[in-house]
Design brief:
Layout (H helix, E strand, L loop, with lengths): L5 E7 L3 H12 L4 E5 L12 H6 L1 H20 L14 H26 L2 E4 L1 E8 L2 E7 L4 E10 L3 E3 L12 E2 L1 H4 L8 E5 L3 H12 L3 E5 L11 H14 L2 E3 L3 E7 L4 E6 L5 E6 L1 E4 L3 E3 L32 E3 L10 H15 L13 E3 L4 E6 L2 H7 L3 E7 L4 H6 L5 E7 L5 E8 L2 H13 L4 H6 L9 H10 L7
Helix pairs in contact: 1-4, 1-8, 3-4, 3-6
């Protein structure tokens, strides 16, 4: 094998975990390659994985566009802005979304060149062990055989199919198809009231679809703080989302241009709904298809994830795995942190990932964001705690924005006052949560946040006020 095809580190997968791992490895002085098979419409590379191509980035682009449309149609008049003849140009909206995706794709190509990461466009497959490392074959637009001392698996995840309802991405949609619907459906069904279901349901409701969300669990957003979930449910229902809980799906029957869902509601009554389009968002499964891990002996766990230890090492020395393909939350930023940590561990450093301070966000309107423990978790664990809340309706900046929905909630240890969890439903919660993440990473108390000066008027004052409320001394509510 020629020397130019030998590397210190090879990363399989160019999503958030993979491309960041490759860049960090290169920064640390390793000769690094990254393999990724995503293609754009012209067959060229489309780095960024699910997140950039059919996940985080395009969904946020459509969420932003659809929110503008809804504001123009309903909220602008209150501000003294009259919009006559409002119409939707869905083609332009989708075109803008694709432009945002391309900018991110191209940005990663630039970063690879800047950091001297060698990119191979195709599918990476383990071919076996080589002298001092492993051989990985690349097939697709690029065909090659390369070797490395260390290989990082960052192949991500795929949408989970509902048995009997295979994705065709035209009528029965995964997150991929939900981003490319070419006309607003009159009736849209969503199976699964999770992050993807709520975000995509929100997009199409704002654009004019009647949206019904069918959730199998008896509680809404059961993984988040119960008080926040109840507030979010109330707000989404008021907006027009028809959210049905405790549903049992009996069958999904696809027609020529529609789909019928037969189900039992929470009371057991038989129901049937016909939708123009159906989004299925019931979770994701790790992507190990065609990876060839059996040739090198990498083990999977009982759920099909690549089995790793706390430092993302597989059972085979020199092979690592990060992101959605391993245990832990399926979040792009979690994958990035693991990618950086693994690159640093390969270099003999001590990479840092704290699962207790990984923030979660649902980019609906209002947004939902949280970090740390929920109130129900603390009760179950028998932890004595204090809680403080502050509503955005009492925040001056929120009033000026015209969005006073939701609240900030702090949970702190009853004895030490250490912050144990922060939960937000409200405007730009995704940005506000970062203060809580920093505070918890440094084991701050609610008193620390309460004593820090926050700009006025700002939404972040609601964070300060919720921290004050832990000690029952909120100043503005």
């Amino acid at each position: 094998m020629s020397t130019e095809k030998q590397f210190d580190v090879v990363v399989i997968g160019g999503g958030p975990g993979g491309y960041v791992a490759a860049i960090r490895a290169a920064q640390l002085g390793f000769k690094t390659a990254c393999i990724d098979e995503w293609q754009n419409a012209k067959g060229g590379p489309a780095l960024g994985g699910t997140c950039t191509n059919v996940g985080c980035i395009p969904s946020k682009a459509l969420l932003q566009s659809s929110e503008h449309f809804e504001h123009a149609g309903h909220a602008f008049a209150e501000h003294g802005i009259d919009v006559a003849g409002l119409s939707l140009n869905l083609g332009q909206m989708l075109k803008r979304k694709e432009g945002v995706v391309k900018a991110n794709n191209d940005g990663i190509v630039y970063l690879f060149k800047k950091n001297k990461v060698t990119f191979f466009h195709g599918r990476g497959t383990f071919a076996g062990k080589a002298e001092g490392g492993f051989t990985v074959n690349v097939s697709g637009p690029t065909t090659d055989s390369i070797s490395a001392k260390n290989v990082i698996i960052a192949t991500g995840s795929n949408a989970r199919e509902l048995p009997g309802a295979a994705f065709d991405e035209k009528v029965i949609l995964s997150n991929t198809g939900a981003l490319t619907v070419d006309a607003v459906p009159a009736k849209l069904g969503v199976i699964g009231a999770g992050v993807i279901g709520l975000e995509m349901g929100s997009v199409w409701r704002r654009l004019g679809a009647k949206v019904t969300v069918l959730e199998g669990l008896p509680t809404f957003l059961g993984a988040i703080d119960e008080q926040i979930a109840k507030e979010a449910h109330k707000l989404f229902t008021k907006q027009g989302l028809d959210i049905q809980l405790g549903v049992k799906i009996n069958s999904v029957t696809k027609g020529d241009n529609n789909v019928t869902v037969d189900y039992a509601d929470a009371a057991g009554a038989a129901k049937s709904e016909t939708f123009d389009r159906l989004i299925i968002s019931i979770g994701r499964v790790p992507n190990t298809n065609g990876l060839g891990i059996e040739t090198v002996g990498v083990q999977l766990d009982e759920r099909g994830f690549v089995a790793v230890d706390d430092e993302c090492r597989t059972n085979v020395p020199g092979i690592w795995a990060v992101g959605d393909v391993v245990r832990g939350p399926m979040l792009a930023h979690k994958a990035e942190e693991e990618g950086v940590a693994v690159a640093e561990r390969i270099a003999g450093q001590h990479g840092h990932v704290n699962f207790n301070t990984i923030p979660w966000v649902i980019y609906t309107s209002p947004e939902i964001a949280w970090v740390g423990k929920t109130e129900q978790q603390l009760k179950k664990e028998g932890v004595a705690y204090k809680a403080g809340t502050f509503p955005f309706m009492a925040n001056g900046r929120a009033r000026a924005l015209g969005d006073t929905s939701g609240m900030v909630k702090f949970l702190a240890d009853a004895t030490t006052d250490e912050i144990l969890g922060v939960h937000i439903v409200g405007p730009v919660a995704s940005e506000l949560i970062s203060e809580a993440v920093v505070a918890m990473e440094f084991r701050a108390s609610s008193e620390d946040i309460a004593r820090i000066c926050h700009a006025h008027p700002s939404l972040s004052e609601a964070t300060k006020e919720a921290a004050l409320a832990v000690d029952k001394r909120s100043l503005n509510f």
